[in-house]
Amino acid sequence: MNNKTPTNSLNMQGKDKAVKNQLQTIFQYLSKHVVTATMLSEATGVPQKNICRYKKDLEKRGLLMEIEKKYCKKTGFRAWYITTDETKFIKADPQLKLF
What we know:
Elements: H1 7-30, H2 37-44, H3 48-60, E1 65-71, E2 78-83
Antiparallel strand pairs: 1-2
């Protein structure tokens, strides 16, 4: 058998698919819930380190917002509650953009 596809590219395709699935899982869950990263990790099974990376990317794209910082129901520590539900996004004061 003469397989011309390098093994590395097969692994990368699988990795890209896993990243896409995790990102979709996170986005969909957050569209219906407002939770902390720890709560999100527990609910979805996505590792918290991955959630932090996806959170940063989604924030930069304007698709995720930190709603409020309060005590996490799982850890007991203060943490940001996040969501992708745009109806819950906090609207910025237009006057703040003047400066």
